[in-house]
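Ticket reopened. Same input as before:
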Amino acid sequence: MTSSTTTTASRPVATGTGSRRRRSHVSLWFAVPALAVYAVVVLYPVASGVYLAFTDWNGLSATRAFTGLENLRTFLGDGDAMGALIHQLIIATVFPLIQNVVGLALAVALNSRIKSRYVLRTVFFAPAVMTPIIIAFLWQYIYSTDGTLNTVLGAVGLDGLRQSWLGDPDLALWSIIAVIIWQFTGYAMVIYLAGLQAIPGELLEAAQIDGAGRVTTFVRVVIPLLAPSITINVVLSTIMGLKIFDQVYAMTGGGPGNATQTLTGYQYQQAFTLGNFGYGTTVALVLAAIVSVVAALQYKVLRRNERAAS
Amino acid sequence: MTGRRYGGGTLTLEIVMIAIALVFAFPLYVLVVLSLKSPEEAANSPLSLPSALSFDNYTAAWEQADLAPAILSSVVITVVSVAALVVTGALAAYAIARHTSHWSGALFAVFLVGLVVPFQLALIPLYQLVRDAELLGSYWSVILYMVGTELPLTVFLYTGFLRAVPRDYEEAAMIDGASQLRAFRSVVFPLMRPVTGTVIILNAIGCWNAFLVPNLFLSGSGRQTIPVAVYSFVGEFATQWNLVFAGLVIGMAPILLVYLLLQRRMIRGFASGLKG
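Engineering reply: fixed in the latest deploy. New output:
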């Protein structure tokens, strides 16, 4: 950089944000490398996946017949698929709800002046960094009949609560959800922390001078200002919940019976275990439709609330 | 919302939070403690501290799970993918944020699709594509997959950041005769450093932890990544938890180490990057 550039560049930003001046018109060619990889790896396979969902292809035969809505009809009449859909929806409802409430509570607590706040932030976020498939095996042990959870329950005199946490069909799904919440609560916490730190302290002091108690301040001032963080967190974790695969695959493989089978797991089973590539992709297509609709709806509603709050 | 001084309320909060954190971290205590115990001790007193420090499980897991080549594979795939993501993603965001026509908006929307659509929909066609290109079992299969699927988040973060950066600096450079590419390289890209940190960290976590596709593309090739190697190792030694746990700790150590080294910046950058 020449010295003259440096002088011009160090001009105060206030002379113009440049948003109105449209001088630099950067060539779209710069996007080509990214677009090329993205097209080959995502766009083209997604498009042909959509086509595949309407065929009877089994992965082996050279021919694949276009069967129209046949697979979709099969799906609607497939009890296992419906069960898997319901499990996935349960995960995608319960996980974001608890993750966000607990994540927000942790963020508020760790945004205080306690001395251990930096260490504790590190601790709470650590599981979110760890490999889900590895976390799943750790919890498989913790949940096992002679595993940690039952040992601890026995040690504190709660023998009555000892369970087969992943072996009981009524309980297994909830045990898995607990692991996902445990792993990703720190994720929500971090986004809320950033939101909290962006709130000017004077605003809170002003509210308190006006006589608002802590709870009122939190509900009336903090929550509305956190609306963008809430939007991001809720949409992200719902998408995550609708796509969960590794944890279930490693912890229960969908069992016992089909008690924890998810739509993602059912898709894998149909396509790669049973060779029903066409039908397996139909399952993925249904999931894609659900994710798109739910994410779009959530985003719309939450954004409207954001605007109403500001 | 708490007072400016460290009072009784703060002390109570501190104690409560530490207690919660201890419960929260307990599974990780179980993981490490068990990985240091002999089978007998693991069965008889699984929760106590190990009576003696022995790394036998670690050496056994290291050899039997083939973890050394797996770590190499994971490192190669992660480093190459993240580097490619930074370069292609930053360039694409530069075009999207600074090109002023409806095309840039459309392009942004196209990338956002990948943030939402579950990859399972693309899985089988991509598998065929990779197989027909004879890339099954090669690093490239997973690197391409990682770059393609992580690009939406990368472009999203970079574009959001860039839209908040004034154009004055790069315009000044261009007035001085720099080309667009030159302005990008010496002015815009350096300005994007904070979000580049976030992009590197998030994508490194994503690449290191990916399981489904690396398992489909690499298992049995000798180039399998850590999650894939650990998965088959656990399947083989399912009942020897102390041995398995040593393998889990080794598999998780690199990414955890990176996290602990960068955690301050990671948490800050992660949050600000997502706020866009």
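Chain B touches chain A through 110 residues (CB under 8 Å). Residues 85 and 148 of chain B are 9 Å apart (CA to CA). Please confirm and we'll close it.
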